[in-house]
Amino acid sequence: MTDSNAIEVDSLTKLYGKARGVESITLSVPEGSLFGFLGPNGAGKTTTLRLLLGFLRPTSGSARVLGLDAWHDSPRVKEDVGYVPGDLRLYPWLTAREALRISGAVRRRDLLARGLELCEAFGLDPTIPVRSMSRGTRQKVGLVLAMAPGPRLLVLDEPTSALDPLVQEHLRAELRRAAAEGRTVFFSSHTLGEVESLCDRVAILREGRLVAVDTLEALRRATGHEVVVRFADPGRPASLAPPEGLRIESVEGASVRATFHGKLPVLLEWLRHERIEDLSISRPDLETVFRRYYGAGRQAAGGAA
Amino acid sequence: MNRGLLWKTALELRATTLLFGIALFLVEALLAFVVPQVTDQFSTQIFQLRFVQTIVRGMLGTELGPDAGPETFLTICWVHPVVLSLAWAHAMVCSTRFPAGEVERGTIDVLLSLPVSRGQALVAETLVWMGSTAGVIALGISGNLLGGLAAPPEHRIRLGAMAIVGLNLFAVNLTVGGLGWLVSAASQRRGKAITNLLIAVLGSFLLNYLAQFWSPAKSIVFLSVLNYYSPLLVLRRGAWPWSDLAVLAGVGTVLWTAALGVLARRDLSTT
């Protein structure tokens, strides 16, 4: 464990009987980072988060959060962690004000002032009981409760799923501010645009296994350039002899969509000898990166079977 | 002990406490009013009939002896099936709230995201439940005192003796609650936990009942929680049932400690 990592996970595995939860996850989340945890439903994101909070006991491996063992030191870990569950359910009689009082009493701190500030920022009436709230409003209560103590680490499991776009934007601003203050945000989501706009590092989880952990830029680099070429001759794609590093993904009439791994001058030199009508070379967005990791993994799994 | 957890649990249990307390108050008031009138209608001759003795013995769960007096009938106020059902239902409802109830309603994630250990949560639940149980029994005693005002003094239960009976009932509920915490600690569903607990409690009741007139049941009646609940002896002799209280408190503590052990090791999250 280095001092600069808020989360350090080593070969973490959780099996539910014969069913898989997560397997051999190893990852580090630097303090002060906005870290995106990506994966489709059922990939194991929530299981990982619950392991980090000590709700679940690892089958093997270890998870350290803020320098403490996530399972054995769970109560101490949570002194500095704010958590919003994905499927947030609250006590029906609870109001945001009452929840802040109780949470403050548990933590032996007054959270009311900061909590009410957050309520106002999120447009939340602190006097309404949960039983009268919509899902989005309940989500706001969860966020207020998690953020009011000003924890060193925020663990958010798909926190924007029920929020309207304005509140989402406000939340993103709050999370950026938290990161700027040196707090860490561990943000699970399957909404790629959201992670792309917010996070500086991401991990991609597929079927319980981690398939990539890096900065967005590095992942994009590793994924290569997206190349779309429209040839002047519609028959040309059929007889192409692409240079090394260019992998053709699809052909539609005279247009070819491909991925290029290598030095761009090599590609440009090859294109110089072709008659082309249109050309686009770009870094892939996160969705493309994600699809590539996820699709490649599925193909590999299919091939293995 | 965590003040915030105590507060949260107390807020949640106040309605339950009030509901069961008022119910026990009314039932006790009614019994304390009705039982002395029934006693007067019972002639000594009828009471000498063997089958009548058997029925009353089965109900009171103990030998009557030759000197059955008014206190024998007054004991019914504290062993009546409705009274025991209310007391046990309260124990079952409260002791299965955590963790089974919290898991089932999906609030366990929020509760455990607070900086508290599972043990602290269990201690808070247990302390508030004990306070709630004491409150419910105290309301029952109040009801009995109120209902008894209409009866002549020799047909009333003295407050001191009733307090001891109340303590004995409290100890019985500690054991039922201890089992409830253990079953709850091992369950994902509150309904399942309550069902298992109900089977155990009903079995215990039937065993104690059968043991009064079926000798094979007598040899294992020590397994019944009601074997350690003896209001007749308390009301008749005014003595403290120390050994019964010790057994009930001991078993309750062992069961509660086992619940704590199970709780500390298992996965706990919304399913």
Give an overview in words.
The complex is a heterodimer of chains A (305) and B (271). Chain A is of the alpha/beta class. Chain A contains 10 helices and 14 strands. Chain A has helices spanning 45-52, 74-77, 96-107, 112-122, 135-147, 165-180, 192-198, 216-223, 264-272, 286-304, and strands at 5-16, 19-30, 34-38, 60-65, 68-69, 81-84, 153-157, 184-189, 201-206, 209-215, 225-231, 246-252, 255-260, 276-282. In chain A, the strands form 3 sheets. Chain A has a 6-stranded mixed β-sheet, with helices on both faces. In chain A, strands 2-1-4-5 form a 4-stranded antiparallel β-sheet. In chain A, helix 3 (96-107) runs antiparallel to helix 4 (112-122). The longest helix of chain A has 19 residues, at 286-304. The radius of gyration of chain A is 23 Å and the shape is elongated. With 271 residues, chain B is mainly α. Chain B contains 14 helices and no strands. Chain B has helices at 3-41, 44-48, 50-60, 70-74, 76-79, 81-95, 97-105, 108-112, 118-148, 159-185, 190-210, 215-218, 231-237, 242-265. In chain B, helix 1 (3-41) packs parallel to helix 9 (118-148) and helix 9 runs antiparallel to helix 10. Chain B starts with a helix and ends in a 6-residue tail after the last helix. The model of chain B has no long low-confidence stretch (mean pLDDT 90). The interface between A and B is medium-sized, with 33 and 27 residues.
